[in-house]
Write a structure and sequence with these properties.
Elements: E1 14-17, E2 23-27, E3 34-38, E4 43-47, E5 58-60, E6 66-70, E7 75-80, E8 85-90
Antiparallel strand pairs: 1-2, 2-3, 3-4, 5-6, 6-7, 7-8
Length: 103
């Protein structure tokens, strides 16, 4: 069994495998960082973002080109996975409770 760790990160509340199975994304409502693990190399890339609070949930698009992440506030982000840049969106009616991405 392989254990992937990153000092000081947690509690992890959501993990999601990329459609190819090569990357694992993890998030926590207690931090604004999303962790992207390359499981084969056991390397992690923390995606830093600012504002909107922690990230309780994330999900990959079916083709792996995007990751959507919710926040504990009224924001969600859609990440483009080639450059790991994101667009921030606002849910004006309430906080994000469900995340689904179908691109």
């Amino acid at each position: 069994m392989q254990h992937l760790t990153y000092s000081g990160y947690g509690p992890i509340t959501s993990v999601s495998w990329s459609p190819t199975g090569h990357l694992l994304a993890a998030c926590s409502p207690s931090t604004t960082r999303i962790m992207i693990w390359s499981v084969a190399s056991e390397c992690v890339v923390p995606l830093h973002r600012f504002g909107g609070g922690g990230t309780p949930f994330l999900s990959w698009s079916p083709d792996g080109s995007h990751v959507i992440s919710s926040t504990v506030s009224k924001f969600f982000r859609v990440w483009e996975t080639q450059t790991w840049t994101c667009e921030k969106y606002t849910n004006l009616s309430d906080r994000c409770q469900v995340v689904f991405l179908d691109i």
